[in-house]
Design goal:
heterodimer, A: about 375 residues, Cytochrome-c3 Hydrogenase, chain B, three-stranded antiparallel beta sheet, B: about 325 residues, mainly alpha, 11 helices
């Protein structure tokens, strides 16, 4: 990790950007320390969008608190409520109906599809390739329609509830048929896009060898999720999650750790998500979708880790009289900020935003993590 | 009678050119970008006509700049320079001699380029240093480093464009000079009336390609839009323009698109802009084709960094030099 720092010879100027910047979907402050137009060091600061969700959760009935976690992120809302329910279900020993687990996996993978497609579209936009960006948004529309069909909303579907999934999210034959058709369409369009994308020499020239993070550096920076896997580290929490036991899928990795690897990583992961959804639809068991036979009791702090589209998502809280206590949530972008700063070093200032975007930042979700430094 | 004819030709050409130029940004966005990206796109009058009209009726604010009046004056100066440039291309103005020559055209285009440098260095947007953010709190990295607005990067890049980026278009201009053996526009047109358009020669065809790339660079269009790239410098030199000054910016861009296409028609097809000459329709067609081709190129390209920009400019410049050599042969 020090090799880039050793190259840092002269810092001529600081170019600050943000917190409002068109290339950034969310507010953050970026200070680039440059020599000519080459970034020699970078500093990112988040924290201007702190909403205090954990504080609001304090003392709320667990069902309400779970619903609140869905508001943390507009992209991966489902994974938050799923993980929050998972905390209580683990703590209270609630057994999930098999059909509910399958539906949760379907929703989770649909969300992964839409998150990765949004990531790819944003990446192309920062590259300056608006046509690719628009085409990816069109592909994503199919996923959004499916999510809307199942959950009733395009963004916050509220599918997971304690003990299973909401009745609204039950999958009948019509819905299953639509999901099947949607998966065929996404696979076809995404394959065509990927072929076009990798055969574009101008795009490849912009993204190959840019923002490289080695596997060792990614581990040292505590990266997680696709950001880590794109450096060649085979690490995916889904392989250890009981919900994913019935499904066969490959953990995708890329070797180079550059922007190209990060982008292609998401493309290939989308194909795996399609594979998982197809298996879930094919093997969808009959039966109830919610287990109502459980009792509330006081439990100590319980933790749950889950593989969100961006990486490892952590939720923990204790229950006291059915109310949430000491809630802590850590989103994947928190772990990946180090890689965002690090990968920009040594590259042209235009590539700096690309280096940040390659790690799939979601700072509005991250802004709950604060560290109080005593002066 | 001749004087009236000339006045009608000059004023009519300027007015028609100006009106057509207002439609070019809309055509570029509606019929090319939007079609390629499979969306509806804005109304054709929106980017070039309705937007400037809207901005003319907005409240004018003083921009954050060390010299706000000069900063605000620059788009208008740019517009005037381009109007003068088009004026010198009209045949009735060829009596001005050296002013209606390639050297004068290059001079005016260079002044136009320098405007971006001034704009960049005079803009101080809130998106950068002026943002009230505690950057230098305890523990901040490199607290003593001098701070720079990102518009300064635009200014620096404008300087680099003057130094090397605009090579292609200037080399392309000299292809017709080499063919006609004169720097005067009247001689270049006369040469083509006798020998046919330069475009249909090997040197002319190569020169046209080089001219087109230079046209895109001068207009800062994707993939060459390093002056106003969204990932870093946003709108770059134009960032602080508001109200009528932003309207001037929009109008200037449209008019520059038209004027450069007219310049191409003059130098490579031998058709000078004159409203009273039926061949003016060809000038209009060229003025439409150029933005359309540019829009197709830009829709399928990412923004270049220097890593792609330098080799592209070098390669295109070499082609331009070959075109000049072919012209001499």
């Amino acid at each position: 990790m020090d090799d880039k720092k050793e190259n840092r010879t002269v810092i001529e100027a600081e170019v600050p950007m943000g917190t409002v910047h068109p290339a950034a979907l969310e507010p953050y402050r970026l200070r680039l320390f440059v020599e000519d137009e080459i970034v020699r060091d970078a500093e990112m600061t988040v924290g201007v969008n702190h909403r205090g969700v954990e504080r609001i959760m304090e003392g709320l009935p667990v069902e309400k608190a779970n619903s609140l976690t869905e508001k943390i992120c507009g992209i991966c809302s489902n994974i938050h409520i799923w993980n929050s329910c998972r905390v209580a279900e683990t703590a209270l020993g609630i057994e999930l109906p098999e059909r509910a687990m399958y539906i949760r996996v379907i929703m989770g993978e649909l969300e992964r599809l839409h998150s990765h497609l949004l990531y790819l579209a944003h990446g192309c936009e920062v590259l300056g390739h608006e046509t690719f960006s628009m085409r990816l948004f069109y592909i994503r529309e199919t996923v959004m329609d499916l999510l809307g069909m199942i959950g009733g909303n395009r963004v916050q579907y509220g599918s997971a509830v304690l003990g299973g999934v909401r009745p609204r999210c039950e999958l009948d034959q019509m819905r299953i048929q639509k999901i099947t058709e949607g998966m065929d369409l996404i696979e076809e369009k995404l394959t065509a896009f990927a072929d076009r994308f990798v055969s574009d020499p101008m795009v490849m020239s912009r993204i190959t060898g840019v923002g490289v993070t080695s596997a060792e550096d990614a581990l040292r920076l505590a990266c997680s999720g696709p950001t880590l896997r794109a450096t060649g580290v085979k690490s995916d929490l889904r392989t250890g999650m009981f919900e994913y036991d019935p499904f066969e899928f490959d953990v995708i990795t890329q070797e180079d750790g550059d922007v190209k690897s990060q982008l292609l990583m998401r493309v290939f992961e989308n194909f795996e998500a399609v594979k998982i959804i197809r298996q879930a639809i094919r093997d969808l068991p009959d039966g109830p979708i919610t287990n109502r036979s459980w009792e509330m009791k006081d439990v100590p702090i319980t933790k749950s880790y889950i593989e969100a589209p961006r990486g490892t998502l952590y939720h923990s809280y204790a229950l006291e009289d059915g109310r949430v206590r000491n809630s802590v949530i850590r989103t994947p972008s928190m772990a990946n900020i180090g890689a965002m700063q690090y990968s920009a070093i040594g590259h042209h200032i235009t590539d700096a935003q690309l280096c940040i975007v390659q790690c799939d930042p979601c700072f509005t979700c991250t802004d709950r993590a604060i560290q109080i430094i005593k002066i | 009678m001749d004087l009236i004819y000339s006045l009608i030709a000059v004023i009519g050409t300027l007015v028609v050119s100006f009106i057509v130029s207002l439609f070019l940004p809309g055509i570029e966005r509606k019929f090319i970008h939007a079609r390629i990206q499979q969306r509806v796109g804005p109304p054709i009058t929106s980017p070039g006509i309705m937007a400037p009209i809207k901005f003319f009726f907005k409240q004018t604010i003083t921009p954050e700049s060390p010299m706000p009046r000069l900063y605000n004056a620059l788009p208008l100066i740019s517009l005037i320079i381009i109007v003068i440039l088009l004026l010198f291309l009209i045949p009735q103005m060829y009596f001005l001699g050296a002013l209606a020559s390639i050297i004068a055209i290059i001079g005016l285009l260079k002044v136009e380029e320098i405007m971006y440098m001034f704009m960049g260095s005079l803009s101080r947007s809130v998106l950068s240093v002026r943002m009230p953010f505690p950057d230098r709190a305890k523990g901040a990295a490199h607290p003593e480093t001098p701070r720079s607005f990102f518009e300064d990067l635009s200014s620096l890049r404008a300087f680099r464009l003057i130094a090397f980026g605009s090579f292609p278009i200037y080399i392309a201009l000299f292809v017709s000079v080499a063919m006609a053996g004169s720097i005067y526009l009247s001689d270049i047109i006369a040469y083509q009336q006798i020998h046919g358009p330069i475009l249909f020669t090997v040197a002319g065809a190569l020169g046209a390609i080089v001219f087109f790339i230079g046209y895109m660079i001068l207009l800062n269009e994707y993939p060459f839009s390093i002056l106003k790239g969204k990932p870093d410098v946003v709108e770059g030199p134009y960032l602080e323009y508001a109200a009528k000054y932003r309207a001037y910016v929009y109008m200037t861009r449209g008019f520059l698109m038209f004027t450069l296409a007219t310049l191409f028609a003059t130098l490579f097809l031998g058709i000078a802009p004159n409203i009273l000459n039926p061949s003016f329709i060809i000038t209009l067609i060229v003025a439409l084709i150029f933005p359309m081709l540019m829009a197709v190129m830009s829709a399928f390209s990412p923004i270049f960094t220097y890593k792609q920009f330098y080799p592209t400019v070098a390669a295109v410049s070499i082609v331009g030099v070959l075109a000049i050599v072919a012209a001499f042969l």
